[in-house]
Protein 1
Amino acid sequence: MTTAIHQNAPAGDQARDGLRAANDAARTPSESVASIHRLLGAQGYISSEAIATALFIAQSLEKPMLVEGPPGVGKTELAKAVSAITGKPLIRLQCYEGLDEAKALYEWKYSKQLLYTQVLKDKLADVLSGAEGLKASVARLHEFDDTFFSEEFLEPRPLLKALWEPEGAVLLIDEIDKADDEFEAFLLELLSDYQISIPELGTIRARQKPIVFLTSNNTRDLSDALKRRCLHLHIPFPDQALERAIIRSRVPDAEEKLRTQLVAFVQSLREMDLKKVPAISETIDWARTLVLLHARELDRALVENTLNVLLKFQDDIERVGEKLNDLVGKAKSNLR
Amino acid sequence: MTQVLGEFIKALREADVRISPSEVIDAEAVLGLVGYEDRMLLAHGLSQALAKSDADKEAFWDVFDRFFAFAPFTPPEPANSAAGNCDAEEQGPDDQADGDDEEAGVTGMASSGGSGQGSGKATGKGEGKPGDKAGGDQDAGMFGAEGESLTMAEELAQLLEAGDAAHLALRLAEAAQQAGLSDIRFFTQRGMYQWRILQLMGSEELGRWIDQAEGGSNAAAAARATRLRGLRAGLHEQVREYVETQMQLFAGNEGRRLREDMLASQRIGLIERSDMQIMQGLVRKMAKRLVSLHSRRRTKARRGTLDARRTIRANIQFEGVPFHTIWKRTKVDRPRVMLICDVSGSVAQVSRFLLLFLHSLHEVLPEVRSFAFSSNLGEVTELFDNYPPDVAMGRTLQRFGGSTDYGHAFRDFEQLALDDVDRRTTVIILGDARNNNGDPRADILQTIQQRAKRVLFLNPEHRSRWGSGDSVMPIYAAYCNRSISCGSLKELERVVTDLLRTAA
């Protein structure tokens, strides 16, 4: 009962997306990395050299990329930026405990199937009319049996959608470490061959190999089998210069002086022993908050009132509060 | 696979980074893509293909820095001007012939960019050889009757005199590769490799020539020989350093591994204080292995409860007629562990490691409660969860150190935690059961055993000594599901593995 659905769809004329174009134009690897860096920058994503290199390699080798790092350093944003550059749709699969293939891959539209059988009940008599005996009726029915298990009744979930996308897609499998081991194993076929086996339909290959990102917060160790199939990128917290560049791009309204100070302040927080240190996303939120408050530079009261944007635990806020004078002073003196 | 990449991966594996063949293939593809031109590009690229965890990344950058270190061959003192002239005359005829080869060699190096010795190995192989031959035929004249066998020496002499660092480095890397330096295992092999490399570079022959020339009648040759003797000594020094760094790279961990192996099987009580740091690392490593082995949560079918949703889903292809039934499954619980540790002088060290071990297994054993006692017993779970092991153990000893009284300790435990012992709990008691002739209170142990899933008694003493003197081990053993003699780290590991495996 296999219906061929888009199997081995011809690649057609390749989508000339930004990444590929950048790659073709550049003569040396270093140049392509630099142009990827520029393209990401144009999307407001300031990348480090490691990130740009990883992207260059991943798309040249057509391999999935496993991105790890503390929360809030821009793992998910990276996939979004790549989607924007390439013009390919971003298909996102958020992982959680209990995620199974029915939610990740495909589902039959039961209700539609049921409805149709009811509606078509009358037609059944017509179809079977003239058939002599049981055997002939069954033979007649056989001619139609795949009707209800065809593409019209298939509800594609993110993974299948990504494979079906004619121009290719950016597939983001977010927080893979939250999913069960079984799901991780299930992904292996997709990651190594860009294909998926569905019992009712057969093996489905990608029309265009999607650009796959997996992100993980390291809540548990991923299996070696999964890691082996991916390139691995670790995004750490950015250094001061990079973070300033990120703030400049994301919160252009923040003035130079404020920007330098707030980044210095956040960087010094990261050196403290806190339950959760602020990530880039918190820095950006904080910068926006400060801009809203028309701040031109940091001062103690201002920081104290807005600290809750930066820190998410009361313990942390109290701990930082004790040293606030020191920290603000240091951030202000640090005008490099 | 290129030689360089192969050796780099060898060095990485030596640094405990696990690399599978498919990752090697990836690395090769990355190499083909980025080439050697841009050092950072190469580093980032390879790190993405080869190092896939934080620890691996750290090891990767360390090895990369050392392996692709651009340690330029510090050129020996350039020959003085007089010698230079003299050389120029001598070399005259072969300058042109050599020219091409030189250039080829140089471009070879340039294309490999800053990657230094490593790439030298790859490119050097091809470029160097023809140079030897071509130069050789014409150089022969200089050494006169000695003939072709001396060409290596002569070339080396010229390189040394010219202070040509790049070519010397190339020759060195080439010789090292021929000598199989990356197979070095023990520091005792250093001398042998150093000698072999020098021989392959032609230094031995050069030495012979020097001896001959110095003793000879030709004044110019004798002067040259004296000069070369100094240069050659410098070369020896550099080869020695090179072998040293390469050994660090390829065998740096060998000695450590041997030592760890020995420590793991030694009785913990006998281990020197200075080795404690290694031991702690070892415990952590063992714990990590066990965590990755047991981090899968197992599920067990709950008999008799139909999982309606999944059954419908599975039978949709049969129009909803349930041919396949699917039963609800429950996750198997992690074992709950209560650890009662004797921390009196005699067994404190073993307790320390068991405590450290179980608390390092937090991911697979989330419910560990630890109690420490000598005579008084108290809970130390918080200490070990929140503080580094040294601090936690220090405070524990401070609070609970002293002479042993099992009876008292069991009484304390009865009051403190007996109510929390249920049929899912595994109680592990670690101690030597030497009760200083006090009341053993085995009745409390019996109650614990009746309530708990099982009671394990770990005794660091050898089985033959149980029951001797003031040991009450035979009495306790009667109320334990298992009593195990457990003195070394390996034995501890076996117990913990067993604990995790039979968790269900």
Protein 2
Amino acid sequence: MSDADKKRLLREMIFYRRFEDRTFEAYMERKIGGFLHLYSGQEAVCTGVLEMANVGKGKENDYVITGYRDHIHAIKTGAAPREVMAELYGKETGSSKGRGGSMHIFDASQNFMGGYALVGQPFPLAAGLAMGCKHKGTNQIAICFLGDGANNQGTFHETMNMAAIWNLPVLFVCENNGYAIGTHIDRSTAQPDQYKRVDTAYNMKSSQHDGMDIDNVMEAAKTAVDYVRNEQKPYFIEFMTYRFRGHSMSDAKGYRTKEEEAEWEKRDPIKIYSKKLIEAGVIKQADIKAWEKEIDDEMENDIIKFAEESPEPKLEELTRYVLDDNPDPRWIGPLQK
Amino acid sequence: MAETAYWEAIRRAHDEEMARDPMVIAMGEDIGVAGGTYKATSGLFDKYGEKRIIDCPISENSYTGIGIGASMVGMRPVIEIMSINFALLALDTIVNAAAKIRYMSGGQIECPIVMRTPGGTAHQLAAQHSARLARMFMSTSGLRVVTPRGPLDAYGMLKSAIRSNDPVVIIEHEQMYNLKEDIPDEEFFRPLEGAEVIREGSDITLIGYNYSVHLCMQAAERLAKDGISAEVVDLRSLKPIDRETIRKSVEKTHKVVVAEEDEAPVGVGSEIITGIMEDCFFALDSQPVRIHAADVPVPYNAKLEKAAIPNADDVYQGALKAMGKI
């Protein structure tokens, strides 16, 4: 990987952290409503995995789908950050035209197929996206990001089984942050090593890796992505990570200790990668400062400004998008009397 | 024209649509090698292969979800759920995903998926194989729900459902799969929307859907012998409901019976009668009558089952009540 790409990746992760921090501020200002689940701490997983896949190329992208902690996955796949922010603000210019909100970011133009609030629901949808890719012979794959908590849903087991028997080109990325909402994995899950839950049970290739060092993530993800694409078979990859904020805004994090948080913060993916790149002479500390300034400028003068100034959806369009708004009367009718 | 059974009509629609469009696939339990519980895909496994006639494990929620995911990238899956009771297991993917993805995405992504399932009582299948549940799906924004009453609609509405860009739930009936009707040899379509007056009359309107349409027709014939002219309306579509056709009929006859096979609370009859109250209250000469199942899980014992489920005599008696004859 070139130095330019390494610098870009670090800058991307710093941008993602700042994006989430800024949504937190907007939420506290009541500019953003509903539920808000932030990705801070887990950036290396999404950034590293999707760096190894086809993203940012529009309709040629691989298909990406995830749960409700979805802002960063959407942006890394190719969604415009200002449209994601406008969505959080509920605006017509938002990526889902203000109809979805934080938990339901969609960008079909980049094959980002959505954030879903039913834990575990993206498993079968992802397998279906993969079935479509395989059926059409496009060489695209589906990539499904979900947390360890999702693996206690029936859809996990049902989908692993079908993805395996039908050889679907889907990569399941388990972001194991140790908590299912606020319950520690040791108390919710009989087998804490998630990759072990699919290998013999569903005869699927799987592996477990550190998710805080993006170099590790990329190396493991490349193997997995190539396997899925070339072998046209599923792969389950687990990354050990940690979310620095609560599950959502209402979470006081009373279920975990300060000591545990401090330990994981030492392994902050941005700190790890910054240190590596500085030590390798790829960047200087001053570069990071300069990026932070640039990012803040972009955040306020473009992204937030766009979200603030964009119009809300028109009330007269309340019932638009429920069903096909221009249906073919041959199929829909009404019945000719 | 050829006499065709309900299951044959469904099979023919699958076959024609699969031959026309390689994006059409079928998924479900035992639909391939085993030929299908209701024979609705019999012979198609040999013709189209395992990639397009897909035998699924007994995992309703996730194979429905896989079909939905495939539909999001341009496939046209037709999912057979062996019984509407089992569709409860797939409610998450049907109601939380298929019905909502178009809206949540601001119209960017559509789910052109068809979910076929029989909903009704047969013969002593007991509580967990006898659910009707049309009311559950018709209350969900973002779905279309249709109830073909016979082979003509079973064929024509399935073809329309496959071509429509919306998620469509087709509710069939275990007791209708062998029902026969002459249908045209050449290709045709029956639209997903619109109720239909299938027997004209002037004294009373009998409204049914799915199997209960046949109870209404039997009741109408008996009423005719009593000198009462009953009009029968087949709702055909439970979502959306064609209130205009209902209003016109009630304004003509001034009396109405709604027959459903399901339990009454929050049911199809409740919805239809509310619509009549809102649309043509002053056209009514008597109180509307609901015919429905007893409010019990469906019993196994044959006599108890018979007592729990409405029949043509119940519709007939309901009509007499609406007519003020009893």
Protein 3
Amino acid sequence: MSDATQDGPVLAADGTPLKRSLARALRMQKLRALALIAPLLLFVLLTFIAPIADMLFRSVENQIVSATMPATVRELSDWDGTTGNPPGEEVFKALYFDLFLAAEAKEHTKLGTRLNYEKTGVSSLFRSSGRKLDDLGKDYQKAFKKIDKQLDEGEFWYTMMTGSGPASDALVTARKARFGDMTDESTKADIGFAPSQAITDLLPLTALAYTDFAVFTAIADGDTVAEEDPWEAVYVALAEDLATADVAAYTGPGADVLQAAQAGLDTIPVTSYTAFFEDIDKDWLDPEVWETVKMYSPKYTNGYFLNAVDLQKSPDGIEPRPENQQIYMKLFKRTMFMSLVITGSCILLGYPVAWILANLPMRTANLLMILVLLPFWTSLLVRTSAWKVMLQQQGVINDVLVWLGLVADDARLVMINNQFGTIVAMTHILLPFMILPLYSVMQTIPPTYLRAAKSLGATNWTAFWRVYFPQSVPGIGAGSILVFILSIGYYITPEIVGGTTGTFISNRIAYHISSSLNWGLAAALGTILLGVVLLLYYVYDKIVGIDNVKLG
Amino acid sequence: MAILTPIQKQPLSFTLPVVAAAGAFAGIFVGAAQGSTLLGILIGAAIVAALGYVALQVLGDDQERMARWAYVALFAVAGFFFGGLPGVVVGAIFGWFFGWFTYWIGLGRYRAKLVPYLTPGQVLWHYAFRVICGAIFVFLITPIIVVMPLSFNAEDFFTFTPEMLRFDPEGYSLKHYRDFFTNDDWQQALWNSVRIAPAATILSVGFGTLAAIGLSQPHVPFRRAIMAILISPMIVPLIISAAGMYFFYSRIGLQGTYMGVVLAHAVLGIPFVIITVTATLVGFDRSLTRAAANMGADPVTTFFRVQMPLIMPGVISGALFAFITSFDEVVVVLFVGSAGQKTLPWQMFTGLREQISPTILAVATILVFISIALLTTVELLRRRSERLRGLSPG
């Protein structure tokens, strides 16, 4: 302390200014604390927060349309759906080549399923079309084979398309990327093929179709491109290209065959793409189908969210769904209503129990506490199965009532597979979550307050209502929010005892994940539910504080 | 406080109507079972009132013990005529109750533990309130009690068979337990649960304890936000966690693997570990670690020799919570797991939804006993922790 009289800043033992030394110590402490927390935080972020974020992302993600049919979507952007006419030939041409690749990769059914969520019937349209796409190219292929046998051989095609001179790597890279977008497969592998720049310029569509074939053969099938016969779509592309190409000036391998093919082009049975698709299914000319495709072609959509609140997109903007399809708002309302009823009955049943636990002598209260904690610790499925056993028509409660004569044997009460069953079972399951916070609040209220109120002339009721109850409100708040949060997300109990009228929104989410496979809608419903829960979580944090959660 | 309420014999004009009302109430059930509710009420009231008169007036106070045995015997015999062997049990219980109730009311014992200035209305409310609370406790515990005898059912029913009600040994059997211990599905499920829960517990306790120690340091930046993130697995509805994990884990190839389920369960158990361990650390006396450091112990030694033994009860209760979370969890494993990770609750869930088999009740009974064991352990640990912390000053 002899330094105290010195001028300048106060120094620590090692000669640094005390202020800086303290700041360093504080920083060290903070870092140490963070270092202890970091592993867990990282763990939770990776295994829990990332999945939640992924779900949020899925609720707006809509890559599938543009990834499966990129060219079609591009062509379709010029089409105006309000005219009531189907789109033009260019769109159908793009559709043919997009769909051909998708059908080979078996991705067209996924797209069909996706669009079917928005317009019923699209799924079967895509499925049946995928099977018939080969038909168009088969006629072309036969005709080309008649002109020159070599055109039917895979090896010749490989030589012709590889050509001579510089290769067009850009095309291969682009088609690889397009295939990767569609299938989520890794496209890093070398496909052992690249069309020459010359042939790409001469026969652009053919080069495109053949490269698609090559990418698929090498990556998805793992075969050698040169050994495989090209797809039917390649012949269609060839006919398309030869109609306008200047083959005479081309000198690369197979130039003679191409010239012969162009000369015999009039033997090829050319059909328009529009007519071909109309022949497969008239629905392809339905503007509404195309309207749906166009509406869901952007990479992100609010369609799932609209669906989750019973709205839909239409050419005229957002409008409510038809009455018979409005189920989600009803489900949300039912979930809210039933959670409120459950919370209410938990307060009603929990309050007296918490009161008596807080006011009995310690020994008795501890004994009775076991009756509250035992259900709390018992497996959820045990309690749910117990309620199933008790409530069913041949169950214990009905048997007792019949034995007592209160209910006739042929008029047993229906207490399960409806709202009543869900409410009773869930009230029982969540009751400890109400009693425990209430009890811990009531324990802190001195019993002398009540006696003081009474000695001042208050009646029992006034003393309770004006003195005791206001002090127990924080406990009611904490318990209610806890019970409400837990109940709106419940899945197992409503699934088992809820039947059809007692199910919650979570049952619908589970249904969309595992049965209907509409993951986007499941994610959107989940996001809305999560929003409600987080809001309540925030309120809970403000009222009770996360740190004050107590267990047991 | 000493209560000086004088206890005195109540006049018959009070006692008899009260016991008659109780008798009438019981008469409702007997009457309804026999066909006429009204007759039941009247006869019930008349019998109990008459018995009350005999017991209190004719026999007198000093014959109480004998009179109460007489009640039990009379009602047991009456029960036998109405309902056979189960009737005897029910009748004896009723008899014991009415015997006790008649003397309790008649001799004014109900006043003994209450303050003298209460009005009759307040006394009535006092006991009515207790009856209501008792009913709620019954509501809480009955479902758990009911499954136990049913699990010994000899038939494949979910309810009491007439044989069981007659206490006929034929009606009981251990076959559902035998099924549980020999059926491959159930054994596989048990084995999976036993493999998953401890691994998840170790992960959540390891990470959780470290983080709880970090969080209880005096200066933690973003403490509230971090706490909110770490507690969130407990708050976010399970179906949403399950959905998110299902989507995300299938992206990274963890869906349907043992590892995936263990990670998912570990993260669900973390909030419980954090809460219990931080609760223990709140009362932790920091001067103990400083004292250890002062005597030359390095931080690692201090942690293992001083801090760890003191927070151990909290860590173990956290571990038990994490264990039971994983052991009971069904929603997440349903989505994240595949058939190879079918756990006990999952098997119960499918059992309840599809093939209803009373083996579920046998499993439920076993699980209830496991919960009782865990509950006892946690309670003992809590007491020990309080005692340990009570020793440290401050």
